[in-house]
UniProtKB/TrEMBL annotation, chain A:
Highest classification ranks of the organism: Eukaryota, Metazoa, Chordata, Craniata, Vertebrata
Pfam families in UniProt: 3-PAP, Myotub-related
Gene name as annotated: mtmr12
Organism: Acipenser oxyrinchus oxyrinchus
Keyword rRNA processing: no
Keyword Secreted carried by entry: no
Location within or outside the cell: Cytoplasm, Myofibril, Sarcomere; Sarcoplasmic reticulum
Name of the protein: Myotubularin-related protein 12
InterPro entries: MTMR12-like_C (IPR022587), Myotubularin (IPR030564), Myotubularin-like_Pase_dom (IPR010569), PH-like_dom_sf (IPR011993), Prot-tyrosine_phosphatase-like (IPR029021)
Automatic annotation (TrEMBL), chain B:
Catalytic machinery residues: C389
Signal sequence region: none
Protein name: Myotubularin
Domain Myotubularin phosphatase: 178-552
Keyword NADP: no
Region (Disordered) location: 20-48, 594-617
Tyrosine specific protein phosphatases domain location: 359-405
One annotated GO biological process: muscle cell cellular homeostasis
Length: 738, 617
């Protein structure tokens, strides 16, 4: 590292050994006989421009010290490579195979600031002139902040790289420019087509049937939209009540249709529905809606409750606004800024409103759970397009009620079912194409992950996956490679992946799914996704997973099984009235005091010992809803607890788990009296645990000095304490108290 | 959210009992006993099943209504002894009980008069020192509360009624003797003292130098006792700079003392100046002695008016003075009071975070920790430091003990922590009696302040940030705090050693450590990994500091239930599983080949075991 403070190092020629020193890359490069300064490029990746002698400031000391290297911009990422950084001991113990530590996918860029003459200015795409700033600050969607100085680069290179970065990351582009396309055209298909076999993709009729069977749902799989005959927003296959005919679906192009999400063991079920177009005449839509609701109640033999999300949850714009405020609390430029903002930390958190939104979503989900679990009432969630907060709510409800969704494959299947097949507009919400005129971007999926994280941190043993898994998943949203997050619907994806010209002989492109984790991480790193605290189901269940799972659930509430006639068949008068309002597109106020109903649910749930394979409810008190530290604070050096943090206990659990595993094997071996010691080899197959010092295993720990962080600007905080502050500790001593 | 928050208070008593798994923090001060004698028999006879310590005596029993803030009014019977208030509900399925040592009572008030209307408006209102209030209602006929009020008042505040504190009446016996935990000379020897730079002095053997210091003091070798006497004249309450801790490698020291008596005129004292320079020279590498004045700058200046002050630049040329901006005992007391307002009985719901911020409690914690970090950091880099505030028994004790906890892993063990408290707090005269007000009715005494609670909170914050570095667990810390008030043990009684000697505390009372060390197992942190010579620097940022919910909000049954630690529970299960396998393996080994029957009986550190298993057999 060079220090700019000492005059000598400044003008001398910086070193710029610019290949990355990570072991496997080297090997790869050697194999190809390319002992060059080229960065590690993925198939289909092309370098647009690059600049040498760029200084990357090291975060710990934002303005003084840095590393020289080459800054490049490719069709996939902005990369900084330097021979000076990562030596063997400081490289992170785990890494992403697609991205190095200093790589920023173009779609991960959030904001770029230019600093010239000490002035920091937000760079806006399309308004870049020939001048370039001396310093670039890149804020990423995963909350990293990079500071680059262009002062020492050649003028021509600096100008090009600046314009290149701005053009490719901040300006609108077409979908075809997204890196996944050129990647898939080049990458060998075998590499891209591997699928995680346990994850249901919900692209086929079979997947839906299987899910329907698993939950013993009393509905049918509809093929009405095969080849997107009816709607481009809907998946080709979905599940609806038996009484819903293909004509019904065709009538309003899928709007106003109750789509099945999940069935409770009592027979009631969760549905979601998009609002009818507002132009419909009263009579028509009302009659239609009655038929649809009858269809739901007939099949399920349960009353149905309608939850209109527009009336009780924040709008998407509010979501975006709140998250922007919240995110800002973690994009910290300097140590001074960190400590200054520390003074008002709690009130800033509260002002952002983000935790409150999380709380509201969880609370709404609990309410829906209550209808299903206690009242055995089917619930129909209604939202304008039923593809935003609807997805959040339906997924949360299922996670709380069904332990299958707390396994990794179950969770992934759930996201496929509710989000991907459910037609969440990932592309628009993430705003990967930077198209301003499109619908407002909003962190809807992230909100869902945040809610899941709250549940995870409150009830860790209930989840098979770890916090790290959620964090990595949240990062993957911004990697423009996975079909999961690149499209607005299945139809959108299918048309996009069709070969450009019909006469081309190529088969359709096959984008990888994010669930193909081996694309990003090796086995060792993937082992971090497993939660060592997870309490698996009793062993006897394992063999007959699906069936016994059902039994297990049924036992929980035996008195209320299907056979019991539901108290109130059909839906209530009050609700039909409300329905009219909803489907005429009007907003209605809350008609139900939300927590009045969930109170008893909590009580009865708390009365029983907590069953991690049973119903899971979130705690929603002030102290219980927290900040997802791993995701938000992982890049802030001041916030790192050197040699501490919850990771240390997790490591202990992991060590113990592997020790138990070894003992178990050894006991088995010995009791079998197999005396060949050859089989007894594999001891620590897991990662070198002691190496994991950071709360987020994919970061380098070296940058964080052992020096303690000493809060600065302490004095400002307690300015307005009462006159007591001036008093002497022990009055007995002095009379002249000030 | 508001509505959700309310349901907790409408919970029926069953809910509390449903926390059937013994909650980590319920700490048997309030718990539920199982079904018992019928309602009738309870009314007739004195309350059965009242826990009783040896030496504890029954004073009175009375039918009463406990107005529980969470469950509403509960009819039952209260029993008062010379140690505790015990309440049991008539309802038996399940019975609700309340077990409150009288020592935690801060204030007893009569509520309502004989003519007050309304249900349960006539009774007693009890304010406790441990973040809760108790309300009892009585029948209005016949001045029914007069007796109980007077008895309670008498036994809750024995010192105000010329009675003895319960610790002197207790006949408890334990297998360990906690008074032997700390021996000043042995502790200095552990640190490698005395050596050729530092000597033990007995100049205070009869408390003639300083009546609030212990008898054994560690001072610079070069400073004769005569000098110490001269220096003591210039330090508030004669609390001269003495060694608290020495770094085993770089020999830098932490010295503690009180403020210099500079006064308005800016007095100087050559002996004091020379004494501090002797300290600086002792380890040979301290260019400038750092003096940490725990107070905010303005307060230090203000102290000049009352004869105090701080070390001026001119007088102490080889020293640098750093103010740590920690506020005084009054500010801390008010801060905790505000905290109680937002967590008891109801947890503030709508603006939890900003309410928490407005109590400033965590901010004070942050300042104390930040101060201790600076001390520890300075010491690690080889510089000796002097720490003081005004009198050197509140903030000074916090800073020295916390920095020692960061620097020396010994203090993170079960015994080490007891030594630390015994040394830095008890022996150096933190005024426990004045700060807590043991047995004293004067609840509004301005001398009371939760300084020690704040210290334990800081320790808890450290255990949260370094969950494997401490041998003791949260229950240990909570037990200390509960017995800070209980008056069951002699450990925290009185202001300083000289008074304790006078009262023969060691002879006549039992030490808290006797009890803790006799049932050690339940205070052990299963994640503890022994490691020596690691300095712990916690992050003193609001991002990491959190409210100690399981202590401050433990009386709320709903919050309490959320505080169970699934990670620890799971880990304990896994440890048990490992032991099973080890046992099985041992059996197999014995039957298999006698060759390798070594060390399998040790439930030692996992790494060791893995290593053992690893070797191909």
């Amino acid at each position: 590292m060079l220090s700019l403070g000492s005059g000598g190092g400044k003008s001398t020629k910086p070193s710029f050994v610019s290949y990355v020193t990570l072991e496997d890359m080297k090997i790869k490069e050697k194999e190809e006989g390319l002992r060059s300064k080229h960065p590690y490029l993925l198939p289909g990746e092309v370098v647009f421009c690059s600049a040498n002698h760029v200084l990357k400031y090291t975060q710990e000391d934002a303005s003084q010290r840095g590393v020289y290297g080459t800054l490049l911009c490719t069709n996939f990422k902005i990369a900084f490579i330097s021979g000076e950084s990562a030596s063997q001991e400081t490289a992170p113990p785990f890494r992403n195979k697609l991205l190095s530590e200093n790589d920023i996918p173009l779609t991960c860029v959030d904001h770029i600031y230019g600093v010239s003459d000490e002035k920091k200015k937000l760079i806006i795409g399309g308004q870049v002139k020939s001048k370039y700033p001396s310093k670039l600050i890149i804020q990423c969607k995963d909350l990293r902040v990079f500071h680059f100085s262009l002062t020492y680069a050649k003028e021509e290179e600096a100008k090009k790289i600046f314009q290149g970065i701005v053009h490719h990351s901040l300006e609108p582009k077409s979908l075809k420019c997204v890196f996944a396309f050129s990647y898939c055209e080049t990458a060998s298909p075998s590499q891209a087509s591997r699928k995680s076999s346990l994850t249901l993709m919900f692209e086929t009729k079979e997947d839906w049937s299987m899910e329907l069977g698993r939950t013993k749902g009393n509905c049918k799989v509809s093929s009405a939209n095969e080849d997107y005959a009816i709607s481009e927003k809907l998946p080709q296959f979905f599940v609806v009540p038996f009484a819903v005919s293909d004509d019904d679906i065709l009538r309003f192009l899928g709007k106003g249709i109750p789509f099945w999400c999940w069935s409770h063991h009592s027979g009631c079920a969760l549905f979601k529905m998009a609002c009818l177009p507002t132009i419909q005449e009263d009579g028509i839509s009302q009659k239609y809606m009655h038929r649809m609701l009858d269809a739901v109640t007939q099949d399920q033999l349960c009353p149905v409750k309608i939850e209109d999300l527009s009336s009780c949850l924040p709008a998407l714009q509010d979501l975006q606004l709140s998250y922007n405020k919240f995110k800002q609390l973690f994009l910290i430029d300097s140590t001074t800024e960190f400590w200054v903002s520390d003074m008002k930390w709690f009130s800033s958190l509260e002002n952002s409103g983000w935790l409150e939104i999380i709380r509201q979503c969880l609370m709404k989900a609990v309410e829906i759970v209550d209808y299903l679990e206690s009242a055995h009432t089917s619930v129909l969630i209604v939202e304008e397009h039923c593809s935003d907060l609807c997805c959040v709510l339906s997924s949360l409800v299922q996670i709380m009620l069904d332990p299958y969704y707390r396994t990794r494959s179950g969770f992934q299947s759930l996201i496929q079912k509710e989000w991907v097949a459910g037609g969440h507009s990932f592309l628009d919400r993430c705003n990967h194409l930077y198209q301003k005129e499109k619908e407002a971007p909003a962190p809807v999926f992230l909100l869902f992950l945040e809610c899941v994280w709250q549940l995870l941190q409150q009830h860790a043993p209930a989840f098979q996956f770890s916090e790290t898994y959620l964090t990595v998943l949240s990062d993957s949203i911004n990697i423009p490679l996975f079909s999961t997050f690149l499209f607005n619907s299945q139809h959108h994806r299918d048309t996009a992946m069709k070969p450009g010209h019909p006469e081309a002989q190529r088969s359709p492109l096959n984008f990888p799914s994010v669930w193909d984790w081996s694309l990003q991480f090796d086995c060792k790193a993937q082992s971090l996704f497993t939660n060592p605290l997870y309490v698996e189901k009793p062993i006897q269940d394992k063999a007959l997973r699906k069936t016994s799972h059902q039994k297990h659930q049924r036992q929980l509430s035996l008195p209320n099984t299907l056979s019991k006639p539901s108290p109130r068949k059909g839906f209530f008068k009050e609700e039909t009235d409300n329905l009219k309002k909803i489907f005429l597109g009007k907003r209605i106020s809350k008609w139900l005091n939300p927590t009045e109903s969930s109170k008893e649910l909590y009580e009865s749930w708390q009365r029983k010992p907590l069953d991690y394979q049973g119903l899971l409810l979130p705690y929603l008190d002030g102290p219980a809803v927290r900040v997802w530290m791993q995701r938000y604070l992982r890049w802030v050096p001041e916030a790192q607890i050197f040699g501490g943090g919850s990771i240390t206990t997790v490591n202990r659990v992991l060590e113990l788990a592997s020790e138990i595993q070894d003992l178990q094997k050894e006991v088995e071996r010995r009791s079998c009296r197999m005396n060949s010691s050859i089989e007894w080899k594999q001891v620590y197959s897991g990662p070198p645990l002691s190496a994991r010092l950071s709360s987020f295993p994919f970061t380098t720990t070296h940058a964080w000095s052992f020096k303690p962080a000493i809060p600065s600007s302490i004095r400002q905080g307690l300015g307005s304490v009462s006159s007591l502050a001036d008093k002497e500790d022990d009055d007995s001593q002095g009379s002249g108290v000030l | 959210m508001q509505v959700l928050g309310e349901f907790g208070f409408r919970l029926k008593t069953e809910t509390m009992a449903s926390a059937s798994t013994p909650t980590y923090n319920s700490n048997n001060l309030e718990n539920n006993s199982s079904k018992n004698a019928s309602r009738e028999s309870l009314r007739m006879e004195p309350l059965a099943d009242v826990p009783q310590l040896p030496g504890e005596e029954r004073i009175t029993d009375k039918d009463i209504i406990y107005i529980c803030p969470f469950n509403g009014a509960v009819k039952g019977k209260v029993s008062i002894t010379n140690y505790r208030l015990f309440f049991k509900s008539f309802e038996v399925d399940p019975a609700m009980t309340l077990d409150v040592p009288l020592g935690v009572i801060s204030r007893i008030e009569k509520m309502g008069g004989a003519s007050s209307r309304g249900e349960n408006s006539y009774g007693l209102d009890i304010t406790c020192k441990d973040m809760r209030n108790l309300r009892f209602a009585l029948k209005q006929e016949g001045h029914s509360r007069r007796d109980i009020f007077e008895l309670l008042f008498r036994y809750a505040f024995p010192l105000s009624h010329s009675l003895q504190l319960f610790a002197f009446l207790s006949q408890e016996k334990f297998s360990e003797n906690g008074w032997n935990v700390y021996n000043a000379i042995l502790e200095y020897r552990r640190q490698g003292l005395p050596n050729n730079k530092w000597r033990i002095t007995f100049v205070n053997e009869q408390y003639e130098l300083c009546d609030t210091y212990p008898t054994v003091l560690m001072v610079p070798f070069k400073a004769p006792d005569e000098d110490l006497r001269k220096v003591s004249a210039f330090r508030s309450r004669n609390r001269i700079p003495v060694v608290s801790w020495i770094h085993p490698v770089n020999q830098a020291v932490i010295m503690r003392c009180s403020q210099p008596l500079v006064g308005m005129s800016g007095k100087r004292n050559k002996d004091d100046e020379r004494y501090l320079d002797t300290i600086r020279e002792a380890n040979g590498q301290t260019a400038k002695l750092t003096i940490y004045d725990a107070r905010p700058n303005v307060n230090a200046v203000a102290n000049k008016a009352t004869g105090g002050g701080y070390e001026g630049e001119d007088a102490y040329q080889n020293a640098e003075l750093v103010f740590l901006d920690i506020h005084n005992i009054h500010v801390m007391r008010e801060s905790l009071k505000k905290l109680k307002d937002i967590v008891y009985p109801q947890v503030e719901e709508t603006h939890w975070l900003s309410s928490l911020e407005s109590t400033h409690w965590l901010e004070h914690i942050k300042l104390v920790l930040a101060g201790a970090i600076q001390v520890a950091d300075k010491l690690s880099s080889g510089n000796s430091v002097v720490v003081h505030c005004s009198d050197g028994w509140d903030r000074t004790a916090q800073l020295t003990s916390l920095s020692m906890l960061m620097l020396d892993s010994y203090y993170r063990t079960m015994t080490g922590f007891q030594v630390l408290v015994q040394k830095e707090w008890i022996s150096f005269g933190h005024k426990f009696s004045s700060r807590i007000g043991h047995g004293d009715k004067n609840h509004a005494d301005a001398d009371r302040s939760p300084i020690f609670v704040q210290f334990i909170d800081c320790v808890w914050q450290m255990t949260k940030q370094f969950p494997t570095a401490f041998e003791f667990n949260e229950l240990f810390l909570m037990t200390i705090l509960d017995n800070l008030y209980s008056c069951r043990f002699g450990t925290f009684l009185y202001n300083c050693e000289s008074v304790r000697d006078n009262m023969e505390v060691k002879e006549k009372t039992v030490s808290l450590w006797s009890m803790i060390n006799s049932e050690n197992g339940k205070y052990i942190n299963p994640f503890y990994t022994k490691e020596s010579s690691r300095v712990l620097y916690p992050v003193a940022s609001m991002r990491h500091l959190e409210l100690w919910v399981s202590y401050y909000i433990r009386w709320n049954p709903r919050i309490r239930q959320q505080q169970q630690n699934p990670v620890e529970q799971r880990y304990m299960e896994m440890l048990a599983l490992r032991d099973q396998y080890l046992k099985k393996l041992e059996e197999l080994q014995i039957s298999d080949s006698p060759r390798i029957a070594n060390n399998s009986n040790s439930p030692a550190s996992p790494t060791q075991l893995v290593h053992h298993v690893q070797t191909p057999l």
